[in-house]
Amino acid sequence: MSRAPILIKDLVKGNQIWKMAIRVVDLWTVTEKNGYQHIEMVIQDGEGDKIHVTTRNRDFNDWVQQVKEHDTFFLYNGEPVDNDAPLKVCSNPLKLVFNGGTTMTSVAIPGIPTHKFCFHPIENFLKGNFKHDLLYDVIGVLQDVVKTQHGGGGRKSCVNVTLRDVEGNIIELVLWDDYGKQFMNYTTPDNISGPTIVILTHAWCKPNTVSGFPCLSNAWNGSRLYINLEHPQVDEFKASFGATALSNIPALSQSLTCDSTIQPANNFWTGLGEVKSIQAISDLGKDCYATTIGTTVGLRASKNGWYFESCTGSSGNANSEPVTKFKVEVEVVYDGHKGIFVFWDKDCIPYTKLTAKEIREVMKTAGEDNPKIWPAQLDVLLNRELAFRIKYQSQYRQFSVVKILNEEDLYNKFHNYLTTNQNPTNPPVLENSTNAPNTNQASQTSEQSLCARADSAANHTSSPEASSNTTPAKRIAMSTSVNDIILAEELTPKQSATKPKPGKKIKHLKKE
Q1: DSSP, res 118
Q2: Rounded Cα gap, residues 215 and 162, in angstroms
Protein backbone atom coordinates (compact mmCIF):
# COMPACT_ATOMS: atom_id res chain seq x y z
CA MET A 1 0.00 0.00 0.00
CA SER A 2 1.23 3.51 -0.81
CA ARG A 3 0.09 4.88 2.55
CA ALA A 4 -2.53 4.34 5.22
CA PRO A 5 -5.99 5.78 4.38
CA ILE A 6 -7.14 8.85 6.29
CA LEU A 7 -10.65 10.10 7.06
CA ILE A 8 -12.35 13.24 5.79
CA LYS A 9 -12.01 14.84 9.22
CA ASP A 10 -8.21 14.41 8.97
CA LEU A 11 -7.88 16.60 5.86
CA VAL A 12 -5.73 19.69 6.45
CA LYS A 13 -5.27 22.75 4.25
CA GLY A 14 -1.95 22.62 2.43
CA ASN A 15 -1.62 18.84 2.61
CA GLN A 16 -2.19 17.59 -0.94
CA ILE A 17 -0.78 14.04 -0.63
CA TRP A 18 -3.08 11.48 1.04
CA LYS A 19 -5.34 8.49 0.44
CA MET A 20 -9.00 8.04 1.36
CA ALA A 21 -11.63 5.31 0.99
CA ILE A 22 -14.83 7.05 -0.14
CA ARG A 23 -18.24 6.60 -1.72
CA VAL A 24 -19.70 9.13 -4.21
CA VAL A 25 -23.14 9.89 -2.76
CA ASP A 26 -24.09 12.78 -5.03
CA LEU A 27 -22.86 13.82 -8.47
CA TRP A 28 -23.82 16.57 -10.91
CA THR A 29 -22.57 18.55 -13.87
CA VAL A 30 -22.18 22.33 -13.79
CA THR A 31 -22.26 24.45 -16.94
CA GLU A 32 -20.23 27.62 -16.46
CA LYS A 33 -20.92 31.06 -17.94
CA ASN A 34 -18.36 30.50 -20.66
CA GLY A 35 -20.03 27.26 -21.72
CA TYR A 36 -17.42 24.94 -20.24
CA GLN A 37 -18.51 22.16 -17.89
CA HIS A 38 -17.08 20.57 -14.79
CA ILE A 39 -18.09 17.83 -12.36
CA GLU A 40 -19.02 18.41 -8.72
CA MET A 41 -19.84 15.76 -6.17
CA VAL A 42 -20.32 14.93 -2.51
CA ILE A 43 -18.20 12.09 -1.13
CA GLN A 44 -18.59 10.19 2.14
CA ASP A 45 -16.15 8.11 4.18
CA GLY A 46 -16.63 5.11 6.46
CA GLU A 47 -17.67 7.26 9.43
CA GLY A 48 -20.40 9.02 7.45
CA ASP A 49 -18.60 12.37 7.18
CA LYS A 50 -19.09 14.21 3.90
CA ILE A 51 -17.25 16.85 1.89
CA HIS A 52 -18.00 18.81 -1.28
CA VAL A 53 -15.68 18.15 -4.23
CA THR A 54 -15.17 20.28 -7.34
CA THR A 55 -13.12 19.46 -10.43
CA ARG A 56 -11.52 21.56 -13.17
CA ASN A 57 -13.29 22.06 -16.50
CA ARG A 58 -10.22 20.97 -18.46
CA ASP A 59 -10.51 17.53 -16.82
CA PHE A 60 -14.26 17.22 -17.46
CA ASN A 61 -14.09 14.43 -20.07
CA ASP A 62 -11.83 12.33 -17.84
CA TRP A 63 -13.95 12.57 -14.70
CA VAL A 64 -17.36 12.25 -16.39
CA GLN A 65 -16.31 8.84 -17.74
CA GLN A 66 -14.55 7.63 -14.61
CA VAL A 67 -16.72 8.72 -11.66
CA LYS A 68 -20.01 6.94 -11.03
CA GLU A 69 -22.56 7.94 -8.42
CA HIS A 70 -22.97 5.53 -5.46
CA ASP A 71 -19.74 3.66 -6.35
CA THR A 72 -16.80 3.33 -3.93
CA PHE A 73 -13.21 4.37 -4.69
CA PHE A 74 -9.78 4.91 -3.28
CA LEU A 75 -9.16 8.63 -3.76
CA TYR A 76 -5.58 9.86 -3.93
CA ASN A 77 -4.41 13.45 -3.52
CA GLY A 78 -6.20 16.75 -3.92
CA GLU A 79 -6.25 20.22 -2.44
CA PRO A 80 -8.35 20.92 0.70
CA VAL A 81 -9.43 24.57 0.70
CA ASP A 82 -11.87 26.73 2.64
CA ASN A 83 -15.52 26.03 1.87
CA ASP A 84 -16.34 29.62 0.94
CA ALA A 85 -19.08 28.95 -1.62
CA PRO A 86 -22.09 31.30 -1.37
CA LEU A 87 -24.33 28.23 -1.09
CA LYS A 88 -22.82 25.20 0.61
CA VAL A 89 -23.97 21.65 -0.06
CA CYS A 90 -22.09 20.40 3.04
CA SER A 91 -21.53 21.88 6.46
CA ASN A 92 -17.86 20.79 6.34
CA PRO A 93 -15.64 23.90 6.71
CA LEU A 94 -13.39 22.52 3.94
CA LYS A 95 -14.03 21.43 0.37
CA LEU A 96 -11.81 19.46 -2.00
CA VAL A 97 -10.48 20.65 -5.34
CA PHE A 98 -9.14 17.97 -7.66
CA ASN A 99 -5.81 18.94 -9.17
CA GLY A 100 -3.44 17.40 -11.71
CA GLY A 101 -2.20 14.88 -9.15
CA THR A 102 -5.65 13.55 -8.20
CA THR A 103 -6.59 10.02 -9.19
CA MET A 104 -9.31 7.53 -8.25
CA THR A 105 -9.35 3.74 -8.28
CA SER A 106 -12.67 1.91 -8.35
CA VAL A 107 -12.80 -0.78 -5.64
CA ALA A 108 -15.55 -2.46 -3.62
CA ILE A 109 -15.56 -1.10 -0.05
CA PRO A 110 -18.68 -2.46 1.70
CA GLY A 111 -17.89 -0.73 4.98
CA ILE A 112 -18.84 2.71 3.66
CA PRO A 113 -22.53 3.56 4.26
CA THR A 114 -24.79 3.87 1.23
CA HIS A 115 -26.59 7.07 0.34
CA LYS A 116 -29.14 8.39 2.80
CA PHE A 117 -31.20 11.59 2.62
CA CYS A 118 -30.62 14.02 5.48
CA PHE A 119 -34.05 15.65 5.63
CA HIS A 120 -34.30 18.95 7.45
CA PRO A 121 -37.69 19.15 9.25
CA ILE A 122 -40.17 21.68 7.87
CA GLU A 123 -40.79 22.83 11.45
CA ASN A 124 -37.13 23.86 11.75
CA PHE A 125 -37.38 26.04 8.64
CA LEU A 126 -40.49 27.75 10.02
CA LYS A 127 -38.77 28.39 13.35
CA GLY A 128 -35.76 29.91 11.61
CA ASN A 129 -33.46 27.02 12.50
CA PHE A 130 -31.48 27.01 9.27
CA LYS A 131 -28.48 28.71 7.69
CA HIS A 132 -29.07 30.94 4.69
CA ASP A 133 -25.89 29.76 2.95
CA LEU A 134 -26.43 26.03 3.53
CA LEU A 135 -28.50 23.73 1.32
CA TYR A 136 -30.83 21.06 2.72
CA ASP A 137 -32.82 18.00 1.68
CA VAL A 138 -36.56 18.37 2.29
CA ILE A 139 -39.54 16.00 2.11
CA GLY A 140 -43.26 16.66 2.38
CA VAL A 141 -46.73 15.72 1.21
CA LEU A 142 -48.08 17.89 -1.60
CA GLN A 143 -50.68 20.07 0.15
CA ASP A 144 -51.68 22.61 -2.47
CA VAL A 145 -50.76 23.84 -5.94
CA VAL A 146 -50.82 27.62 -5.76
CA LYS A 147 -49.86 28.48 -9.34
CA THR A 148 -48.49 26.95 -12.51
CA GLN A 149 -46.97 28.93 -15.34
CA HIS A 150 -45.86 27.59 -18.70
CA GLY A 151 -42.72 28.90 -20.35
CA GLY A 152 -42.88 30.98 -23.49
CA GLY A 153 -43.45 34.59 -24.36
CA GLY A 154 -40.52 35.69 -22.24
CA ARG A 155 -41.73 33.71 -19.20
CA LYS A 156 -40.00 30.89 -17.36
CA SER A 157 -41.84 27.69 -16.51
CA CYS A 158 -42.76 27.97 -12.84
CA VAL A 159 -44.75 25.95 -10.29
CA ASN A 160 -45.57 27.17 -6.79
CA VAL A 161 -46.69 24.45 -4.35
CA THR A 162 -46.96 23.95 -0.61
CA LEU A 163 -45.72 20.93 1.35
CA ARG A 164 -46.81 19.69 4.75
CA ASP A 165 -45.41 17.30 7.33
CA VAL A 166 -47.05 14.94 9.79
CA GLU A 167 -47.43 17.72 12.40
CA GLY A 168 -49.33 19.92 9.94
CA ASN A 169 -46.49 22.40 9.34
CA ILE A 170 -46.74 23.92 5.85
CA ILE A 171 -44.03 25.55 3.76
CA GLU A 172 -43.86 26.78 0.19
CA LEU A 173 -41.71 25.16 -2.48
CA VAL A 174 -41.14 26.89 -5.81
CA LEU A 175 -39.98 25.08 -8.94
CA TRP A 176 -38.61 26.74 -12.08
CA ASP A 177 -37.83 25.67 -15.63
CA ASP A 178 -36.93 21.96 -15.85
CA TYR A 179 -38.18 21.29 -12.33
CA GLY A 180 -41.50 22.98 -13.06
CA LYS A 181 -41.86 21.11 -16.34
CA GLN A 182 -41.12 17.81 -14.64
CA PHE A 183 -43.72 18.53 -11.96
CA MET A 184 -46.38 19.52 -14.51
CA ASN A 185 -45.65 16.45 -16.63
CA TYR A 186 -45.98 14.17 -13.62
CA THR A 187 -48.97 15.70 -11.87
CA THR A 188 -51.68 14.83 -14.35
CA PRO A 189 -55.01 13.20 -13.48
CA ASP A 190 -53.67 9.83 -14.69
CA ASN A 191 -50.62 9.93 -12.44
CA ILE A 192 -52.14 11.39 -9.27
CA SER A 193 -54.28 8.76 -7.59
CA GLY A 194 -53.33 9.44 -4.00
CA PRO A 195 -51.13 11.59 -1.74
CA THR A 196 -48.01 12.83 -3.53
CA ILE A 197 -44.65 12.74 -1.72
CA VAL A 198 -42.20 15.38 -2.94
CA ILE A 199 -38.45 15.46 -2.26
CA LEU A 200 -36.09 18.29 -3.23
CA THR A 201 -32.38 17.85 -2.54
CA HIS A 202 -29.98 20.74 -2.02
CA ALA A 203 -32.92 23.04 -1.34
CA TRP A 204 -32.30 26.70 -0.59
CA CYS A 205 -34.37 28.37 2.11
CA LYS A 206 -34.78 32.12 2.18
CA PRO A 207 -37.39 34.31 3.92
CA ASN A 208 -39.88 36.21 1.82
CA THR A 209 -38.91 39.87 1.98
CA VAL A 210 -42.63 40.81 2.16
CA SER A 211 -44.00 38.30 4.67
CA GLY A 212 -40.85 37.08 6.37
CA PHE A 213 -42.05 33.49 5.96
CA PRO A 214 -39.45 30.93 4.81
CA CYS A 215 -39.67 29.62 1.26
CA LEU A 216 -37.80 26.71 -0.34
CA SER A 217 -36.35 26.56 -3.83
CA ASN A 218 -33.52 24.91 -5.68
CA ALA A 219 -29.96 26.18 -5.56
CA TRP A 220 -27.81 27.11 -8.54
CA ASN A 221 -26.56 23.59 -9.17
CA GLY A 222 -27.12 20.05 -8.04
CA SER A 223 -30.71 20.13 -6.78
CA ARG A 224 -32.88 17.17 -7.68
CA LEU A 225 -36.64 16.74 -7.62
CA TYR A 226 -38.21 13.37 -6.80
CA ILE A 227 -41.95 12.71 -6.88
CA ASN A 228 -43.28 9.54 -5.19
CA LEU A 229 -39.80 8.04 -5.13
CA GLU A 230 -39.62 4.39 -4.12
CA HIS A 231 -37.16 4.56 -1.24
CA PRO A 232 -37.06 3.18 2.33
CA GLN A 233 -36.98 6.69 3.78
CA VAL A 234 -40.09 7.63 1.78
CA ASP A 235 -41.87 4.55 3.13
CA GLU A 236 -40.81 5.57 6.63
CA PHE A 237 -42.13 9.09 6.05
CA LYS A 238 -45.50 7.73 4.89
CA ALA A 239 -45.70 5.42 7.88
CA SER A 240 -45.25 8.39 10.26
CA PHE A 241 -48.62 9.76 9.11
CA GLY A 242 -50.55 6.58 9.67
CA ALA A 243 -52.86 5.11 7.05
CA THR A 244 -55.90 7.15 8.13
CA ALA A 245 -54.17 10.53 8.25
CA LEU A 246 -52.44 10.05 4.91
CA SER A 247 -55.66 8.95 3.21
CA ASN A 248 -57.34 12.17 4.37
CA ILE A 249 -54.94 14.22 2.23
CA PRO A 250 -56.83 14.59 -1.05
CA ALA A 251 -55.37 13.67 -4.39
CA LEU A 252 -55.38 16.34 -7.09
CA SER A 253 -58.24 15.60 -9.47
CA GLN A 254 -57.45 18.06 -12.22
CA SER A 255 -54.66 19.00 -14.55
CA LEU A 256 -52.24 21.44 -13.00
CA THR A 257 -51.25 23.26 -16.17
CA CYS A 258 -53.58 26.26 -16.16
CA ASP A 259 -53.37 29.45 -14.13
CA SER A 260 -57.17 29.58 -13.80
CA THR A 261 -57.67 26.28 -12.01
CA ILE A 262 -59.67 26.52 -8.79
CA GLN A 263 -57.43 25.92 -5.82
CA PRO A 264 -58.39 23.33 -3.24
CA ALA A 265 -59.59 24.44 0.16
CA ASN A 266 -57.00 25.24 2.81
CA ASN A 267 -58.07 25.16 6.43
CA PHE A 268 -55.01 27.03 7.65
CA TRP A 269 -56.10 30.60 7.17
CA THR A 270 -53.88 33.09 9.01
CA GLY A 271 -52.74 34.42 12.36
CA LEU A 272 -55.04 36.94 14.04
CA GLY A 273 -52.15 39.41 14.20
CA GLU A 274 -52.45 39.84 10.43
CA VAL A 275 -56.20 40.61 10.45
CA LYS A 276 -56.70 44.31 9.63
CA SER A 277 -59.70 46.39 8.65
CA ILE A 278 -59.92 47.95 5.22
CA GLN A 279 -59.26 51.37 6.74
CA ALA A 280 -56.23 50.17 8.73
CA ILE A 281 -54.65 48.63 5.64
CA SER A 282 -55.27 51.77 3.58
CA ASP A 283 -53.81 54.01 6.30
CA LEU A 284 -50.53 52.11 6.18
CA GLY A 285 -49.79 53.73 2.83
CA LYS A 286 -47.48 50.94 1.68
CA ASP A 287 -47.64 47.62 -0.16
CA CYS A 288 -48.34 44.72 2.17
CA TYR A 289 -50.10 41.39 2.62
CA ALA A 290 -52.91 41.14 5.14
CA THR A 291 -56.17 39.42 5.97
CA THR A 292 -59.40 41.41 6.03
CA ILE A 293 -63.18 41.12 5.76
CA GLY A 294 -65.97 43.01 4.07
CA THR A 295 -69.27 42.91 2.18
CA THR A 296 -69.28 43.02 -1.62
CA VAL A 297 -71.65 45.83 -2.55
CA GLY A 298 -71.04 46.65 -6.21
CA LEU A 299 -69.06 46.17 -9.39
CA ARG A 300 -66.72 48.99 -10.35
CA ALA A 301 -66.96 50.12 -13.96
CA SER A 302 -63.27 50.60 -14.60
CA LYS A 303 -61.68 51.43 -17.94
CA ASN A 304 -60.14 47.95 -18.07
CA GLY A 305 -63.45 46.11 -18.06
CA TRP A 306 -64.24 42.79 -16.41
CA TYR A 307 -61.91 40.51 -18.36
CA PHE A 308 -58.53 40.57 -20.08
CA GLU A 309 -56.83 38.37 -22.63
CA SER A 310 -53.65 36.58 -21.59
CA CYS A 311 -51.03 36.67 -24.34
CA THR A 312 -49.94 33.08 -23.61
CA GLY A 313 -52.35 30.27 -24.34
CA SER A 314 -52.79 27.02 -22.48
CA SER A 315 -50.05 25.38 -24.53
CA GLY A 316 -47.49 27.84 -23.19
CA ASN A 317 -46.79 29.14 -26.71
CA ALA A 318 -46.83 32.90 -27.03
CA ASN A 319 -48.21 32.52 -30.59
CA SER A 320 -51.19 30.43 -29.49
CA GLU A 321 -54.72 31.78 -29.12
CA PRO A 322 -55.11 34.25 -26.22
CA VAL A 323 -56.96 33.05 -23.12
CA THR A 324 -59.83 35.10 -21.66
CA LYS A 325 -59.56 35.53 -17.88
CA PHE A 326 -61.48 37.35 -15.16
CA LYS A 327 -60.24 40.63 -13.71
CA VAL A 328 -63.24 42.09 -11.91
CA GLU A 329 -63.03 45.16 -9.67
CA VAL A 330 -65.49 44.86 -6.79
CA GLU A 331 -66.40 47.47 -4.17
CA VAL A 332 -66.09 45.94 -0.69
CA VAL A 333 -67.29 47.76 2.45
CA TYR A 334 -66.50 47.20 6.10
CA ASP A 335 -67.28 49.51 9.02
CA GLY A 336 -68.22 52.33 6.65
CA HIS A 337 -64.95 52.21 4.71
CA LYS A 338 -64.76 51.06 1.10
CA GLY A 339 -61.98 49.35 -0.82
CA ILE A 340 -61.61 48.27 -4.43
CA PHE A 341 -60.89 44.52 -4.53
CA VAL A 342 -59.61 42.83 -7.69
CA PHE A 343 -61.10 39.36 -8.25
CA TRP A 344 -59.33 36.86 -10.53
CA ASP A 345 -60.24 33.50 -12.12
CA LYS A 346 -59.73 31.55 -8.91
CA ASP A 347 -62.03 33.97 -7.06
CA CYS A 348 -64.84 34.26 -9.63
CA ILE A 349 -65.23 30.75 -11.04
CA PRO A 350 -66.42 29.13 -7.76
CA TYR A 351 -69.37 31.58 -7.77
CA THR A 352 -70.15 32.04 -11.46
CA LYS A 353 -69.67 28.32 -12.22
CA LEU A 354 -68.52 29.55 -15.63
CA THR A 355 -65.16 30.65 -16.96
CA ALA A 356 -64.64 34.12 -18.39
CA LYS A 357 -64.43 32.59 -21.85
CA GLU A 358 -67.79 30.84 -21.46
CA ILE A 359 -69.51 34.01 -20.28
CA ARG A 360 -67.93 35.92 -23.13
CA GLU A 361 -69.29 33.39 -25.65
CA VAL A 362 -72.79 33.95 -24.27
CA MET A 363 -72.37 37.71 -24.67
CA LYS A 364 -71.15 37.29 -28.23
CA THR A 365 -74.47 35.72 -29.19
CA ALA A 366 -76.16 38.93 -28.01
CA GLY A 367 -73.68 41.13 -29.88
CA GLU A 368 -72.17 42.47 -26.66
CA ASP A 369 -68.55 41.32 -26.89
CA ASN A 370 -67.05 44.26 -25.00
CA PRO A 371 -65.11 44.06 -21.70
CA LYS A 372 -66.84 47.26 -20.55
CA ILE A 373 -70.26 45.61 -20.69
CA TRP A 374 -70.62 43.80 -17.36
CA PRO A 375 -72.62 40.55 -17.67
CA ALA A 376 -75.39 39.70 -15.24
CA GLN A 377 -73.55 36.51 -14.28
CA LEU A 378 -71.14 38.63 -12.22
CA ASP A 379 -73.93 39.76 -9.89
CA VAL A 380 -73.46 36.51 -7.94
CA LEU A 381 -70.33 38.11 -6.47
CA LEU A 382 -72.37 40.81 -4.70
CA ASN A 383 -73.96 41.01 -1.25
CA ARG A 384 -71.57 38.47 0.25
CA GLU A 385 -69.77 38.73 3.58
CA LEU A 386 -66.32 37.38 2.86
CA ALA A 387 -62.91 36.99 4.46
CA PHE A 388 -59.95 37.69 2.19
CA ARG A 389 -56.24 37.23 2.06
CA ILE A 390 -55.10 40.25 0.02
CA LYS A 391 -52.11 42.06 -1.33
CA TYR A 392 -52.57 45.82 -0.98
CA GLN A 393 -51.23 47.87 -3.91
CA SER A 394 -50.66 51.32 -2.43
CA GLN A 395 -49.87 52.90 -5.80
CA TYR A 396 -53.34 52.03 -7.11
CA ARG A 397 -55.08 51.89 -3.70
CA GLN A 398 -56.38 48.46 -4.68
CA PHE A 399 -56.77 45.22 -2.77
CA SER A 400 -55.72 42.34 -5.00
CA VAL A 401 -57.36 39.12 -3.81
CA VAL A 402 -54.84 36.36 -3.13
CA LYS A 403 -57.42 33.96 -1.71
CA ILE A 404 -61.02 34.02 -0.51
CA LEU A 405 -61.15 32.26 2.85
CA ASN A 406 -64.29 30.17 2.94
CA GLU A 407 -63.92 28.45 6.29
CA GLU A 408 -67.15 28.32 8.26
CA ASP A 409 -67.88 31.27 10.54
CA LEU A 410 -64.54 32.90 9.69
CA TYR A 411 -66.13 36.26 8.87
CA ASN A 412 -67.77 36.49 12.30
CA LYS A 413 -64.57 35.40 14.04
CA PHE A 414 -62.59 38.16 12.31
CA HIS A 415 -65.34 40.71 12.88
CA ASN A 416 -65.34 40.00 16.63
CA TYR A 417 -61.55 40.30 16.70
CA LEU A 418 -61.55 43.65 14.87
CA THR A 419 -64.35 44.99 17.06
CA THR A 420 -62.51 44.23 20.29
CA ASN A 421 -58.83 44.55 19.35
CA GLN A 422 -58.32 47.16 16.65
CA ASN A 423 -58.60 50.90 17.02
CA PRO A 424 -59.38 52.40 13.57
CA THR A 425 -57.87 55.75 14.50
CA ASN A 426 -54.54 54.19 15.43
CA PRO A 427 -54.12 51.00 13.40
CA PRO A 428 -51.27 48.69 14.34
CA VAL A 429 -48.37 48.35 11.95
CA LEU A 430 -48.22 45.10 9.99
CA GLU A 431 -45.40 42.92 11.18
CA ASN A 432 -42.81 42.21 8.50
CA SER A 433 -40.14 40.41 10.46
CA THR A 434 -38.37 37.15 9.82
CA ASN A 435 -39.57 35.69 13.12
CA ALA A 436 -40.82 32.18 12.75
CA PRO A 437 -44.59 31.94 12.16
CA ASN A 438 -46.86 29.45 13.84
CA THR A 439 -48.42 26.61 11.92
CA ASN A 440 -51.36 28.68 10.75
CA GLN A 441 -49.21 31.62 9.72
CA ALA A 442 -46.89 29.36 7.83
CA SER A 443 -49.73 28.26 5.59
CA GLN A 444 -49.99 31.73 4.18
CA THR A 445 -46.87 31.11 2.18
CA SER A 446 -49.21 29.24 -0.14
CA GLU A 447 -50.79 32.58 -1.06
CA GLN A 448 -47.59 34.62 -0.97
CA SER A 449 -45.70 32.80 -3.69
CA LEU A 450 -41.97 33.23 -4.10
CA CYS A 451 -40.12 32.29 -7.23
CA ALA A 452 -37.02 30.26 -7.48
CA ARG A 453 -35.45 28.17 -10.17
CA ALA A 454 -35.63 24.38 -9.99
CA ASP A 455 -34.31 21.38 -11.91
CA SER A 456 -35.29 17.87 -12.92
CA ALA A 457 -34.37 14.61 -11.22
CA ALA A 458 -31.62 14.26 -13.79
CA ASN A 459 -28.29 16.00 -13.21
CA HIS A 460 -28.54 19.77 -13.31
CA THR A 461 -26.70 21.02 -16.39
CA SER A 462 -27.17 24.76 -16.42
CA SER A 463 -26.67 27.72 -14.17
CA PRO A 464 -29.47 30.26 -13.46
CA GLU A 465 -26.94 32.98 -14.06
CA ALA A 466 -26.57 31.82 -17.64
CA SER A 467 -30.21 31.01 -18.42
CA SER A 468 -32.33 33.40 -16.37
CA ASN A 469 -33.08 37.09 -16.54
CA THR A 470 -32.79 37.54 -12.78
CA THR A 471 -30.50 36.22 -10.09
CA PRO A 472 -31.75 33.45 -7.78
CA ALA A 473 -31.85 35.89 -4.87
CA LYS A 474 -34.08 38.27 -6.78
CA ARG A 475 -36.34 35.50 -7.98
CA ILE A 476 -36.84 34.18 -4.47
CA ALA A 477 -37.78 37.61 -3.17
CA MET A 478 -40.46 38.10 -5.81
CA SER A 479 -44.14 37.35 -5.24
CA THR A 480 -45.77 35.30 -7.94
CA SER A 481 -49.41 34.93 -7.07
CA VAL A 482 -51.62 35.00 -10.16
CA ASN A 483 -52.48 38.65 -9.69
CA ASP A 484 -48.81 39.61 -9.33
CA ILE A 485 -47.98 38.06 -12.69
CA ILE A 486 -50.73 40.06 -14.37
CA LEU A 487 -50.11 43.32 -12.55
CA ALA A 488 -46.41 43.08 -13.35
CA GLU A 489 -47.28 44.03 -16.91
CA GLU A 490 -48.95 47.20 -15.67
CA LEU A 491 -46.24 48.18 -13.21
CA THR A 492 -43.84 49.36 -15.89
CA PRO A 493 -40.76 51.31 -14.79
CA LYS A 494 -41.25 55.06 -14.60
CA GLN A 495 -38.63 57.50 -15.81
CA SER A 496 -36.64 59.06 -13.04
CA ALA A 497 -37.82 62.53 -12.13
CA THR A 498 -34.22 63.57 -11.58
CA LYS A 499 -33.15 62.74 -15.14
CA PRO A 500 -34.04 64.73 -18.26
CA LYS A 501 -36.14 63.13 -20.96
CA PRO A 502 -34.16 62.02 -24.01
CA GLY A 503 -33.52 64.89 -26.38
CA LYS A 504 -34.61 67.58 -23.91
CA LYS A 505 -32.00 70.19 -23.14
CA ILE A 506 -31.51 71.64 -19.69
CA LYS A 507 -31.13 75.36 -19.39
CA HIS A 508 -28.47 76.58 -17.00
CA LEU A 509 -28.51 80.02 -15.43
CA LYS A 510 -25.47 82.10 -16.22
CA LYS A 511 -23.45 83.17 -13.23
CA GLU A 512 -23.15 86.93 -12.95
Answers
A1: -
A2: 9
